[in-house]
Amino acid sequence: MLEKIRELELLRQTISLGGGQKRIDKHKEKGKLTARERILFLLDPQSFVELDLFMRHRCTDFGMESVEAPGEGVVTGYGTIDGRLVYVSSQDFTVVGGSLGEAHAQKICKVMDMAVRNGAPMISINDSGGARIQEGVDALNGYGNIFYRNTLASGVIPQISVIMGPCAGGAVYSPALTDFVFMTATHSQMFITGPQVIKAVTGEDVTMEDLGGANVHNTTSGVAHFMAATDEDCLTQVRRLVSFLPSNNLSEAPANFSDDPVSRVGERLLELIPAEANRSYDVRELVAEVIDDGDFMEVQPFYAENMVVGFGRLNSRTIGIIANQPKVLAGSLDINASDKAARFIRFCDSFNIPLLTFVDTPGYLPGVNQEYGGIIRHGAKLLYAYSEATVPKLTVIVRKAYGGAYLAMCSRALGADTVIAFPTAEVAVMGPEGAANILFKDFISNAESPAETRREKISEYRQKFANPYVAAARGMVDDIIDPRDTRRVLCNALEANATKREQRPPRKHGNMPL
Prior knowledge:
Elements: H1 2-16, H2 21-29, H3 35-42, E1 49-51, E2 74-81, E3 84-91, H4 102-118, E4 122-126, H5 137-153, E5 159-163, E6 166-168, H6 173-177, E7 180-184, E8 189-191, H7 195-202, H8 208-212, H9 214-219, E9 226-228, H10 231-244, H11 269-272, H12 283-290, E10 297-299, E11 307-314, E12 317-324, H13 335-350, E13 355-361, H14 368-372, H15 375-388, E14 393-402, H16 403-408, E15 418-421, E16 426-428, H17 432-439, H18 441-445, H19 450-464, H20 469-473, E17 479-480, H21 486-496
Helix pairs in contact: 4-5, 13-15, 17-19
């Protein structure tokens, strides 16, 4: 028996070395952790349990019968983050370039199935050259099996993709189907077709980094949600994200008890919000002033920056935050901002995370490019997402809330449970300047002093309509508060709505304006 055990341990050590020390050294020269090192850094110490270490491919084509692929190029198993169960897969680039074959996919599918059955998050670390060409349709079928499971798991367990190397071709669709995508700044890329194919087909010259690097997908395409400088930094961010999330759609997010008093007065809010409607401020400072300990984890901070979304806590409860950003495009809604917010809202609703919305927007962004790009359809996604959400929905109208954008940012009409406004709020069909130009056009043009008359009419409209009191008189705003009391009011509202139950007509699913 002891001899058999020694053989077992030797085999474990051999397989655990992946592609061998030489390839590991080359891999680490690029500043990358190995597949196992990534898992061990991510999970709590001593918690990782590996599965299917001894799996082997059965391909005999194109010389594969003589190719050893220890662990099939992927490490899978489960462990804990802050004591909570998670399932993981980590592709090993030192083994056949981390390429995905039949057995490789089976290992990933097994832990995905286990994650769903046991109601635990699934974290997939991607570092692969793509499909194992030698295995042909078996490799493609493996991708298909993963995509199918990604879809079935959506809204059941949180799914997180971590891109730590190349992710090309069909491989990119699994991350795209998951809830959050992390990328490392120096050595991760995602693209459907590589630079060589693009050069051959279109004649365009482009580098891998310019085509699908972390910066591109975090700022331009919106495919990724987070960007980190190193593997270690990236995995630390993943741990932080998991701390905000419930394990599944039937459980609550873990409470993170804070000493931050519910009744804390936000004196700084008096200085932060400018009295002049055309002056900007950073809405993230407003968010930080209201939530527990100012601890805000922003999602997609470099994409569609006119919309801010992310996670925080109120009175120790996880909340999802959506806010217009007056510093960028005056906080107006455009195609990308609508998509960004709608997807985040739907994630929060799937996992019973209450929504807090800060409103300060002059409307939808005008322009030919926006109209041609389908702002009507994309803007409708935001309306749909808020209307569909049944979690507690709290709304704070800070300043401008005009027209369709007022409705789209979780108005009472879209199901907001609590709507409060600052005295600086302007709830109206449109801004005073535009309204005066339309309502008093003839009167102004025939006046002896058109400029002075226009100013008077703008002031008249602002006093009569561009304030929160008309909306409050109609019951569309529950209360107009001193901004310094925002935290207390929101904590109380969240507590009051914590047991919310809302039934909708039975249906298979709605038809979102995708």
